[in-house]
Amino acid sequence: MEAPLSLVPGPRGLHTLHPKARPLTSTMPLARSLSVTSLTGLEDWEDEVDLENVVLFEVAWEVANKVGGIYTVIQTKAKITSDEWGENYFLIGPYMEQNVRTQVELLDPPNPAMRRTIESMNSKGCKVYFGRWLIEGGPYVVLLDITATAWSLDRWKTELWDSCTIGVPWYDREANDAVLFGFLTAWFLGEFTAQCEEKPFIIGHFHEWLSGVGLFLCRIRKLPVATIFTTHATLLGRYLCAGSVDFYNNLQTFNVDKEAGDRQIYHRYCMERAAIHCTHVFTTVSQITAVEAEHLLKRKPDLVTPNGLNVKKFSAMHEFQNLHAQSKARIQEFVRGHFYGHLDFNLDKTLFFFIAGRYEFSNKGADIFLEALARLNYLLRVNGSESTVVAFFIMPARTNNFNVETLKGQAVRKQLWDTANSVKEKFGKKLYESLLVGNLPDMNKMLDKEDFTMMKRAIFATQRHSFPPICTHNMLDDSTDPILNTIRRIGLFNSSADRVKVIFHPEFLSSTSPLLPVDYEEFVRGCHLGVFPSYYEPWGYTPAECTVMGIPSISTNLSGFGCFMEEHIADPSAYGIYILDRRFRSLDDSCTQLTSFLYSFCQQSRRQRIIQRNRTERLSDLLDWKYLGRYYMYARRMALAKAFPDNFTYEPHEPTAAQGFRYPRPASVPPSPSISRHSSPHHSETEEDDERYDEDEEAEKDRQNIKPPATMASVPDWRKQPKKPSSEASTSSNASTPTLPSSPSDLSSPGSSIIEERN
Q1: What average pLDDT does range 624-647 have in this prediction?
Q2: Residue from 153, 173, 166 nearest 212 by CA
Q3: Is the separation of the CB atoms in 25 and 300 below 8 Å?
Q4: Which residues have CB under 8 Å from 507's CB, separation 6+?
Q5: What is the pLDDT of residue 192?
Q6: Helix ranges (DSSP H) in 621-753
Q7: Rounded Cα–Cα distance for residues 133 and 70 (Å)
């Protein structure tokens, strides 16, 4: 019999879990934590685990509710999880009517136990909805309406204090929502267990602190649920980094209780820490976050589960270069209008850089990016470069409308286009008639006075006596906005002398926008370089999305994505993945390094950029959920073994002798060759023929280093129509790399791995 959970007072009056509360580790200790070095770190299983009698519930506040990156994690992972679990996979999230109308098809539960559970809860005053999320994989969702049970908030907060001694202040609406959502989740899981005639094994996978209350309530109430908790970013870490603290050099010295209390998030911190210490398996999304969690939350993660993407959604097979050209043309049209009257630079020699994400000025690296752009502007000017850089900042901020001058620019561009088309039609008609009678046209008679007057008026309309605007919208806090204030300080005002232009678009991109009518994916494809010099980035979906679309990017060694790619690629910059050192360098040195990256990229020829994009796109398999989803599979099996040791076994193996594989440099050296035989449709005779680059040969060598993902087996019949049990019923300093199975159904196959080292 497992000892009861106990919670003891914490140093600031609100209370945290006693270390003994860590579940089942005394009976089933792990020999070591697991790492993601070389996409391995998973143990071999002697017998395949039978999932017929197992039900998986995945709980997150962002199920069918887009708030941040967790939505992308769950949405893109749904397909492979549904393929593995079939009808035994359910997502639990909050009911948001505006999202349900467009994303969820409400249904009657096909599962009798699920139907009885929902009916029972609804009869007691709850509002529980069941349906299918309209995304790839079409998983079932259970949506809990927290507003319908808001009358229970005080009673549940009292119970939370009595059982866990965690107090939640009345004014913190987000924490109150977490309490309501957590109690409803625990109620639902308990009710489902009671309604199953033949008890299944239940896995509850909880994401982030907003779902954490449900996890530790399951443990306190001793529900038969194997629990997993994944933190995508620690609460305290995000707050500390936003406060300009030397975070990573002081991880071991922070007084975490005091720091959380000073920032008035101690109750949230207690919820997060309680969930982490109560869960059977604790995972994080990157090794850098694992180190952070170990010091701030006082538990080492059992497993690192890197975030992936549905590569099929973002890949365009061999057409991605054409898509880049098409999307770039649409961005160029916007630039023509935005810079009317000052369009004194060659768009064919203009590079588009961008940074996108949550508006966290320091955490996302917007501060260092702006400083590097000022230095880049100086270098391009003093060296007489013909290249021009247009840097986009796509960060949503508080605005009240579009900037009138920006809208006027697009109107002027359209007027010029209409004028040119009108003159072209008249010119073409006269030319056609002249040729019909067998005469060469008299060029002096092709255009009359009216045509010249129309063209002169159009030219005069493009005159502008002010610089092109920096911001495309009217900012509500213009005088205090950090990006605008920094631009004023460094003097990048889009003048004719500047070789670096800046455009701040404080709104999410949309194809219906009257200003820049492109969606985010199309915009990324049209740019040349994504710049994400984040100081705090537990994973980093923005550079990952760039990679699968074949767009080079700059990341840092403080982001999960940057560390992940640095581990698996011997020369990341050769593949268009530039890793900025923000951990072991001063801010000024990091800015100098970023400037060097940007300037060297500007010096590349068009052919070199095409070759680099080809290489970048070939890395997309590294980020495919078909590979990275296996870490989640392993976490679930580890949780089953720890929660139900009589039914599932887990025998840790000794570390193997296999060394981590580092993805080799491309066949051609230097990383950006000057000649391409296959990638560029335009071969320049002026370039020296001193280096051979064979795209097909290099791509074939890369394919040998990354095995193509095995096709998922079809869902068994018993998962399509669940049987009675389901319907009735880390980080580690050790760098060793055990093998990773080559297919989801081959978890017991020794010696198989995604990446092989070739001689």
Answers
A1: 92
A2: 166
A3: no
A4: 396, 399, 472, 473, 513
A5: 97
A6: 625-643, 695-705, 717-720, 724-727
A7: 16
End-to-end CA separation in angstroms for the chain = 54
Q: Which amino acid is at 556?
A: T
**Single-letter code of the amino acid located at 188:** F
Domain boundaries, the chain: 54-304, 320-403+469-621, 419-466
Query: Residue type at 351?
Result: L
Q: Would you call 402 helix, strand, or coil by DSSP?
A: strand
- Sequence-distant (6+) residues with CB within 8 A of 756 are 661, 704, 705, 707
- Which letter, b or e, does each residue of 477-498 get, where b requires 16 or more Cβ atoms within 10 Å of its Cβ? eeeebbbbebbeeeebbbeeeb
* Residues in the chain, overall count: 759
Which tokens go with 731? 């980080």
Phi and psi (nearest 5°) for 748?
-105, 5
Task: Establish whether domains 54-304 and 320-403+469-621 are of one fold.
Answer: yes
In the structure encoding, which two tokens stand for residue 134, read together? 């309209």
The residues, any chain, with a CB within 8 Å of residue 591's CB and separated by 6 or more, are 368, 371, 372, 375
Residue 168 neighbours by CB distance under 10 Å: 21
Strand 303-304 to strand 281-284: parallel, antiparallel, or no bridges (unpaired)?
parallel
Cα–Cα distance for residue pair 244/612, rounded to 1 Å: 35
Q: What are phi and psi of 707, to 5 degrees?
A: -70, 140
Q: What is the pTM of this model?
A: 0.80
Q: Which of the listed CATH numbers 3.40.50.1000, 3.40.50.880, 3.40.50.2000, 1.10.15.40 matches domain 320-403+469-621?
A: 3.40.50.2000
Q: Answer yes or no: are the C-beta atoms of 612 and 604 closer than 8 Å.
A: yes
377-436 pLDDT, tens per residue? 999 999 999 999 999 999 999 999 999 999 999 998 988 888 888 888 888 888 888 888
The residue ranking higher by pLDDT, 308 or 48, is 308
With helix as H, strand as E and coil as C, how does 496-555 read? CCCCEEEEEECCCCECCCCCCECCHHHHHHHCCEEECCCCCECCCHHHHHHHHCCCCEEE
655: number of Cβ within 10 Å? 15
For tokens 């493009």, the residue is: 462
Using an 8 Å Cβ cutoff, are 130 and 113 in contact? no
Q: Any bridge partners for residue 207, and if so which?
A: 230
What pLDDT does 16 receive? 35
Q: Which helix (H) or strand (E) holds 356?
A: strand 350-356
Place of tokens 């959380």: 260
Answer CATH for 54-304 from 3.30.420.10, 3.10.20.10, 2.40.160.40, 3.40.50.2000:
3.40.50.2000
Task: Tell me how far CA of residue 162 lies from CA of 14, 147, 159, 182, 523, in angstroms.
Answer: 12, 23, 5, 16, 52
